[in-house]
Amino acid sequence: MGLFGKKKAVGRDRELDFVINEIKVDLSNNYKDNAVLGVKKLKALLEEKHSQGKLKDSDYTAYQETLKSFEADIKSFKRTY
Prior knowledge:
Distance between the termini: 49 Å
Helix content: 55-70%
Shape: elongated
């Protein structure tokens, strides 16, 4: 692997990590509507992968904690339009 090669974290899911990164970017840029949609997408994707057995229980628990954190962040968001 080259100097700048990316390694996948053991037991982690790239698709879920990508959605989490999108949510972080949306929150940091104050894109509230996009963040809310991203959290909904993460929740649906997480449940889908867990029900299909594509996630270990320990990974599922870790992603659930991340999801809860994002839900707490967006709890106070109100629509601006």
